[in-house]
Automatic annotation (TrEMBL):
<keyword id="KW-0067">ATP-binding</keyword>
<dbReference type="Pfam" id="PF01935">
    <property type="entry name" value="DUF87"/>
</dbReference>
<dbReference type="InterPro" id="IPR014588">
    <property type="entry name" value="ATPase_Atu1862_pred"/>
</dbReference>
<dbReference type="InterPro" id="IPR002789">
    <property type="entry name" value="HerA_central"/>
</dbReference>
<dbReference type="GO" id="GO:0005524">
    <property type="term" value="F:ATP binding"/>
</dbReference>
<dbReference type="InterPro" id="IPR008571">
    <property type="entry name" value="HerA-like"/>
</dbReference>
<protein>
    <submittedName>
        <fullName>ATP-binding protein</fullName>
    </submittedName>
</protein>
<keyword id="KW-0547">Nucleotide-binding</keyword>
<feature type="domain" description="Helicase HerA central">
    <location>
        <begin position="11"/>
        <end position="110"/>
    </location>
</feature>
<dbReference type="InterPro" id="IPR027417">
    <property type="entry name" value="P-loop_NTPase"/>
</dbReference>
Amino acid sequence: MTVSIALGRGRDGADVPLDLPELLATRLLVQGNSGSGKSHLLRRLLEQTASLVQQAIIDPEGDFVTLAARYGHLVIDGAEQTEATLRAAGERARVHRASVVLNLESLDAEMQLRAAGSFLNGLFDAPREHWYPVLVVVDEAQLFAPVASGDTSDEARRLSLGAMTNLMCRGRKRGLAGIIATQRLAKLAKNVAAEASNFLMGRTFLDIDMARAADLLGMERRTAEAFRDLARGQFMALGPALSRRPVMVSIGAVETASHATGPKLAPFEAMDATEMRDLILEPVESFTPRPRERRTPAPDLLAQLDAFAADRPASMVAPDAPPSKDADRDTLWRLVSDVTAEPDADYRPLATLYQDFQLRARIEGLGRDALDMPRFRMLLATVRSGIEAERARSEPWLQAETIASTLPEDVQGLALLLARAAMDGLPCPDDAALARAYATHSLGRARRQLAYLEERQIIVVREDGPHRRVAFVGLGWQTA
């Protein structure tokens, strides 16, 4: 079935259609200097397809949050979420088929890379039964897939670049159609740009960008200077979803607008120089740069309890209130077991589980320092492994915990789940159990952690048809 939208009009005034099913299969690259109309083009495309296909938008400047009021997109503020939450949000957005705008305007460059990479990886790792078509729009793609490292850490750059590469190179079979927009092709990683089969090239002035755009469109280099003559909102289009030959298109009108409209020219009235000197050079004790405004998160429940305890009058405090009790292991085990018994506890963020534990500990009469985060994480993984409290004190199990502590935090629980099965000679946990231990709904992603543990020389995996046997290196344990 052919479903097309009117992207704009050509030189002859006729509509230039965009074939949506073909776009989903072949991806799109948009290029143009600042002010060429890229955001207007993306907004036109998103508005025209909002009722036809699910959308996920990586928005570094907050330009597309206004789509929510008109088309019902869910706006996620990246500054209020952790990387783990964003990764889970990507998976859940596909499960529930929700159109999402990931707003990153409040984050610095480093955190933008981490947030975008985590969210895109969540989209990519969704279970196979939820691989519905999604338009994944990434504005200012050169930020998330740079051709060279900049001021951000290598770890953040690898995370974001890997996610962008997966989107453009391997996303098609998972229903992900990448639409990336960039100011300069020369700043965009080539292995990301090269996977697009449809192109919309706007106004550009640098010779290197014009030459690369001409090569992508199959135009002769001597005609590349035509890109300098394009007006705002005009693009040269080519690709199976657009046209088999380069065609100029003027992008159509949009129904929503960005909340950031850019600077406007206003009448300028110069003040007297003496008055300005007194105003601008007024002595100050010390210069403090004005901080960027950002939303202040609400204090958590424990912080509110602490504030109440500090402010209440002495008459409200019981004279015989007992001091905080010392935490014994049996009590800690019981409290952590209660936390894991809550619905959906396997997929809740670690910070949320820790706050739940702290609240239970306070009710029990323990102090907030009853168990710090690293010890809570390890005890949580031990409880989830299914081992009994008494056996968890044994020397062999403490050795397993020591081995697990050398691993990244997100795989410690999975390692201890395998350790418990191998310790008792039980069958290897199935993929669903591995996924729960790794706090993901993606079975494939959980299976990949077995290969990682084997690379770290923690386990040895032997596949025998549908059966899997896992042995722990150095402990002499193996599953049935």
